[in-house]
Amino acid sequence: MSTENSYYVPEQSKLPIIAATGMGTLAFGAATWVIDGGSPYIFLGGLLIMALVMYRWWSLVIDENMRGLANQQLKQSYVLGMLWFIFSEVMFFAVFFGALFYVRVLVNSWLGGEAAVGWFDDTPTGTAVANNEILWPGYESQWPVMETPDQAANGDAAQFKGPEQNMNFPGWGRILHWLPLWNTVILLTSSVTVHIAHTALKNDNRKKFNTWLGITVALGIIFLFLQAEEYIEAYQHMGLTLETGIYGTTFFLLTGFHGAHVTLGTMMLLIQWLRGLKGHFSHDDQFGFEAASWYWHFVDVVWLGLFIFVYVLA
Amino acid sequence: MAHGPATMADGWIKYASRWLFTTNHKDIGTLYLWFSFAMFILGGAFAMIIRAELFQPGMQLINPEFFNQMTTMHGLVMVFGAIMPAFVGLANWLIPMMIGAPDMALPRMNNLSFWILPFAFAILVSTLFMEGGGPNFGWTFYAPLSTTYAPDTVNYFIFGVHIMGASSIMGSINIIATVMNMRAPGMTYMKMPLFVWTWVITAFLLVAVMPVLAGAVTMMLMDINFGTSFFNAAGGGDPVLFQHVFWFFGHPEVYIIILPAFGVVSQIIPTFSRKPLFGYSSMVYATASIAFMSFIVWAHHMFTVGMPIAGELYFMYATLLIAVPTGVKVFNWITTMYKGSLTFETPMLFSIAFVILFTFGGFTGLMLSIAAADMQYHDTYFVVAHFHYVMVAGAVFSGTAAVYYWLPKWCGKMYNETMGKVQFWIAFIGFNITFMPQHFLGLAGMPRRYADYGLQFADWNMLSSVGAFMYGAAQILFLFNVVRTITHGKPVEDPQVWEGAEGLEWTLPTPAPYHTFETPPEVK
């Protein structure tokens, strides 16, 4: 509830209309690009506009804050904005997790002619049986789907072929070579380091803040590096690509969107780190950093979900 | 900080830049409202093409391919371009004035969320002129129609939807932040006008489900261009997955459309009944429960798709439950009018029509929610009639009511009451002539989204088309009345405008000054 006498309502601004133009160009260009034979130039133009406008916009907000225009109430608006933005991101990941669960638990059983939920009723429905016998004869329910229904029914003529290998737990003997485990360790550690940095900032310990935030950024970059390594491995040696049926689909979309968010989070933290080096923030004024760190914790939690449902319980 | 808004007299560059660069909630509200009306006319034109083709059996005006593009674009433009922005426009104009705030919480982002929309719709509509034509798979864009069998232009549709979603999410975050953070001292949550309540709940729904829509179109994009198999059983996916994801967005979406309409009507009926709203707190709780339940009923759109019987039963009972909070609302509106000193100005006429026709559409919804019966109704004109009763007589009627109700406050001039009433009766009668026969067509088995039909459906279709053009004509009258009010309307001096009106926005001068509540009012 409003407690102060004035709220900072900014003057007219050219930024929003430029941002909207950039977004429109970006969207139009992306569509042009993905259609066969399309060129990426409109998309790149839109991207450039967006990058410039975001830089200007956030510089302006930081500048307004440093000039003392942002009162406590406006800062609270920013806090709410960031929290609800993260909530929308949660819902975005929820869709892909939901798709994974639906496909794994229900669809996969139905395609194999089985009852979906064994503990509830273990007699397959007529539809499921017909599904299997008529459409996809020979397909057996399995996760990860290493042989697609298409392959089971059509053999080598299949359009959708399963992967050669998957990303599952390789057994205790090879656990130290299992990248997802290392990635988990790295991200969990980074959540701790960013918290240490936060505490240091609250106690006005600038040096400690810079060090630990720097470590966090480094951990984010290492994570991304390992993730790229995993993808290269998948494409070059494991026969696991986007096109290898539903396992490849869910694997790459879930980990890919997570990776994209880690990239974004790392960039956010990097910028806050540079700001910290320039002497921005104080023990009671640090929203830019806090917002980035909330985002980082969110990305971390998503990874835990991925680790459990995509890698471990496969 | 404050300066007056630029007018035409300041030269057109200044005047144009006022609208392009504005951070003022009233300007942005106005932009939203005009944009939504333009889209309403465009979507209406698509509807007229559909009804003209269906006037008689056989193909007369357009080919079936174009007919499919028209049904699709009509739905998309009306839902995302006309109804949603109309209510966002009302929210922008009214929420700060109703809670005693100087502006929206994040004014620059507010401008961004509006200006994305013209770009998004330019992209969407431009596909009609591209090779392959516009989207032709229905506004629900079920896979594989929208993936395997779609024209290449589907990619423009996908990215258009993406930025539209970004606009909605930003707009909603702004509304939530405004309501949570900008209320005047003393304006506790349970003192907020119901319009504010319904909108903050709507905004929550939007933030929750627009990302789901983004996920759905992203999966489509991947299936179309990058060889994934989300919606393809050959690779182990399932086309039905699309329907689940879509309706997990889609069902909350229809409540996103109707909840602000509830809010509008809950403001107007007490004014013209000269009585406070009956059961204010039950209204708030009913709205919240409807919003909650919208997340757990989505598969009632999919009864015929081959779900397990346990699923059908669950979704049927859960859906039937929604009638309870909805019934509470209808009861409260009627009880508000009971023994009130009613007068029937145009906003009140539209609101009463809303209550009657929305309730009617709610009852056909109950029929549809019965899984066994839905096997007969599914994808027939009965469904079309049902959702037009709640979308048009629900959302559009209440939006029209809102414009008439607040227009004098916005521009300080009174609209022509006679013309308003004439518009109402043409709209009311035209609407019923259009959609009432569609119930009968549907029950007789006429499927939706077809360019042609059997001879036995000819009479009702002809009647329906006549009604549609009547309803369309009423909108021209509406536009004329609004424009004439702004240019030649009789000035209103009274801040309260309506005798029975209550709330902070009626304490402001008429017309509402460019900047209001720069110092927050004290709410007792």
Outline the fold blueprint.
The complex is a heterodimer of chains A (314) and B (524).
Chain A: H1 15-34, H2 41-66, H3 72-111, H4 126-135, H5 149-154, H6 179-202, H7 206-237, H8 245-277, H9 287-312
Helix pairs in contact in A: 1-2, 3-8, 3-9, 6-7, 6-9, 7-8, 8-9
Chain B: H1 12-21, H2 25-53, H3 64-99, H4 107-126, H5 154-181, H6 194-225, H7 239-273, H8 280-293, H9 309-337, H10 346-369, H11 371-377, H12 381-411, E1 413-414, H13 417-443, H14 458-488, E2 490-491
Antiparallel strand pairs in B: 1-2
Helix pairs in contact in B: 2-3, 2-4, 2-14, 3-4, 3-5, 3-7, 3-12, 4-5, 5-6, 6-7, 6-8, 7-9, 7-10, 7-12, 8-9, 9-10, 10-12, 10-13, 12-13, 12-14, 13-14
Report on this model:
The complex is a heterodimer of chains A (314) and B (524). Chain A folds into 2 domains: 1-70, Helix Hairpins (Orthogonal Bundle), CATH 1.10.287.70; 71-314, Cytochrome c oxidase, subunit III, four-helix bundle (Four Helix Bundle (Hemerythrin (Met), subunit A), Up-down Bundle), CATH 1.20.120.80. By secondary structure, chain A is mainly α. The mean pLDDT of chain A is 93. Chain A is built from 9 helices and no strands. Chain A starts with 14 loop residues before the first helix and ends with a helix. By secondary structure, chain B is an all-alpha fold. Chain B has 2 domains: 22-178 and 193-217, no CATH class; 254-445 and 456-524, Up-down Bundle (Cytochrome C Oxidase, Chain A), CATH 1.20.210.10. Chain B contains 14 helices and 2 strands. Chain B has a two-stranded antiparallel sheet. In chain B, helix 7 runs parallel beside helix 9. Chain B is globular, with a radius of gyration of 23 Å. Chains A and B meet through helix 1, helix 3 and helix 8 of A and helix 1, helix 4, helix 5, helix 6 and helix 7 of B.
